[in-house]
Amino acid sequence: MSVVHRASRTLAASFLCLVPACATVLDFKEPTDAPASQEGCACVPAAPADWDGPLAFYEGSGGPPPPVAPACAGAYPTVAFDGTAGIVAPAARCGCSCGEASGMRCDPPRVSFFKDGSCTVPCGTPDQPIAAGPTCTPLAIAGCSGTHFSVKAGGASGGACPPSPTRDVPPSGWSITARLCRLPAPASRGACEEGRVCAAPTALPFAPNRFCIARPGSWQCPAEYPDAHTYHHGATDTRDCSACTCEPPAGATCSATTLATYDRADCTGGEKKWAPPRACDKIESAHGLSTPGTPAGVATCAPRGGAPTGDVVPTTPTTVCCSS
User: Which structural domain, as residue segments, surrounds residue 215?
Assistant: First the structure.
């Protein structure tokens, strides 16, 4: 964990002047000539309208959690602003799997009719489903002569797999903390030139001889305080996982499906049984019924969803602008 003071230790004479009690300007040539804060003050640009300052500035990094900001004290005893930056928010950890399939059924066999013995000239209704008994289905062979038919076995359908989602949203946190402290009373011009005010020098643990201004919201920094920072008072967390669902079961087969044809409309007389699939057989009956098969084999469902969504978005910004 580290603490960043963002200090500028070189005071340009055109920007800062130190004056005892803000009354007499001290002329010093080198940064090492700067007097202690209790012996004077710095002439710094006055804060523009709607901005708060000049303020002492602290920024610490190394989290989450970030370092605890030092207390405001000395010449800057009052907290003007506390904020955070550098949100750390890992994506949600999501998973989606599907349990065992259940509720599947075997569809009825389907028959198609043809006029020729090689089943190349269709007639009647193609792919006619033959319902399970006791329902007796009239065969759709109108317009057919010398009828032949093909039989397709019914496939497994329906059913479902229970979804099994997992969801873990890690905690979020900030990696940077900031604190600004203000003077006990608004800074006055004193002996400073027009447009500047007299402010006590800042010192460690705050950025030494660095002054800042602050304003709620997002703003462009004025030229006198060009070093821009944005800190926040909160965040909106929308991290989550998308819904976990399962595709219909696949992979099962149907066994023991049978088709029986009959001469009469109540499915009696001239019974003949067929085990689908059948490629091409001659049929002389006009009615039929089926015996449903039993789903067999291992059916599985493909999972869908369970992906990370959302983010953490910082809210309630405050713009902090500092001397370079």
Answer: 2-92+170-234+315-322
Say whether pLDDT at 41 is over 90: no
Residue 258 maps to a domain: yes
SS (H, E, C) 156-219: EEEEECCEEEEEECCCCEEEEEEEEEECCCCCCCCCCCCCEEEECCCCCCCCCCCCEEEEECCC
**Cβ-Cβ contacts under 8 Å for 249 (sequence gap 6 or more):** 101, 104, 156, 159, 160, 161, 299, 300, 301
Cα–Cα distance for residue pair 180/225, rounded to 1 Å: 15
The answer as to whether 12 is a domain residue is: yes
Same-domain status, 176 and 301: no
- pTM assigned to the model: 0.68
Would 310 be classed as within a structural domain? no
Peptide bond into 134 cis (omega under 30): yes
pLDDT above 90 covers a percentage of the chain that reads 74
HSE, CB side, 13 Å, CA atoms: give it for residue 209.
22
pLDDT classification of 319: cutoffs 50, 70, 90:
very high
b/e burial code for range 22-52 (CB count within 10 A of at least 16 → b): beebeeeeeeeebeebeebbbbbbbbeeebb
Q: pLDDT-derived band of residue 4, with 50, 70 and 90 as boundaries?
A: very low
Residue 16 and residue 154 share a domain:
no
Same domain? For 220 and 100 the reply is no
**Same domain for 74 and 108:** no
- 153 and 9 share one domain: no
Question: What would the two tokens of residue 323 be?
Answer: 């001397």
